[in-house]
Design brief:
mainly alpha; Arc Repressor Mutant, subunit A; disordered N terminus
């Protein structure tokens, strides 16, 4: 993950280890065993999309603007489905990412449908998206890890 690994270093590993029990293997301890890899993939998608504003824009372009706006706002988060995640991220990308963390594509899509709204919500506590350079993206990712409720 490059920037993410370099900037967050041990902090990410500690959070992911806590969330995922260190294995990331399906069936190795219930839903929590898959949460670490899901957070890792979600953060990777955020990084590749240009941060929170970039991923929100992808959802808007896919016709899911109301859902994305709800995650940024201070109100209740509207849900998304695994099919909507596939629509926005792309089935081929989902399959590739799922293989990286030892999940089935359907598991990853469902997990991202659960995790992305919360991550985006945590990254926009004041109900506003910030855009900016790589340093700002780093701040966003660090804020997500600090703010994500375990």
């Amino acid at each position: 993950m490059g920037l993410l690994d370099g900037v967050l270093g041990g902090a990410l590993g500690g959070v992911l280890g806590k969330l995922g029990g260190g294995t990331g293997q399906p069936g190795s301890g219930g839903q929590g065993a898959n949460l670490g890899p899901l957070i890792q993939i979600a953060l990777q998608l955020l990084q590749q999309s240009g941060g929170l504003a970039g991923i929100v824009e992808k959802f808007k372009k896919a016709g899911l603007g109301n859902q994305a706006a709800s995650w940024v706002s201070t109100g209740q988060n509207l849900p998304i489905s695994p099919d909507q995640v596939n629509q926005v991220i792309g089935g081929d990308t989902i399959s590739q990412l799922a293989g990286q963390v030892g999940l089935q594509p359907a598991q990853l899509s469902q997990g991202l449908a659960d995790v992305l709204p919360d991550l985006i919500n945590q990254g926009t506590p004041n109900g506003q998206l910030s855009t900016g350079d790589e340093a700002n993206l780093t701040d966003q990712l660090q804020g997500l890890l600090k703010g994500f409720k375990l």
